[in-house]
Here is the input.
Amino acid sequence: MDVFEAIAKRHSYRGPFKDQPVPRADLQRIVQAGLQAPSGKNAQTTTFVIVDEAELVRKIGSLHASNKAVQQAQALIACIVDTRPEPVHEGHDFQIEDCAAAVENMLLAVTALGYATVWIDGWLRVQDRAEKITNLLGLPAGKVIRVLLPLGVPEETWPRKEKQPFEARAWFNRYG
Ligand SMILES: Cc1cc2nc3c(=O)[nH]c(=O)nc-3n(C[C@H](O)[C@H](O)[C@H](O)COP(=O)(O)O)c2cc1C
Here is the structure.
């Protein structure tokens, strides 16, 4: 699958997964795609914990009341950032941008390998969920999970969200 096909096929999946493990070689390939993402000043600030131990995957999955992909994930990828990021350029840090670039690379790799996932971020931000998962993963002080990717082979086809047409959001040379 070429990159444009992966971009076109990628979509958020919140449905059930097949009872089919994701081999470590694939998990490693997906995270390697994240490691290869650009980062501000090449600071490579995002780190990753890959969860494939069944009991831990279930424990984290059970925290989500409604998302079947999280509940039934075969594996999870936790993307980790600093709670107090160090500035890398004139007082600015790029931890969130670094993390987002890594996540998008991984979403495309997930799609290219025939798996499905969804970018879980907003859900982590409430009810101390990020802190709970941070503790379950044994993260050191100063580190917190920013994005969680549940992974598996999708059991259902899932509707793709409509995107606005080019003309509505992009222009040459002048806005609008
Ligand atoms: C920063 C960010 C945070 C997100 N947080 C969540 C989340 O917590 N839970 C969830 O189910 N989807 C989450 N999503 C997925 C979006 O809802 C999804 O990308 C959007 O509805 C467009 O659908 P698509 O990914 O299928 O194109 C998040 C996406 C982004 C980029």
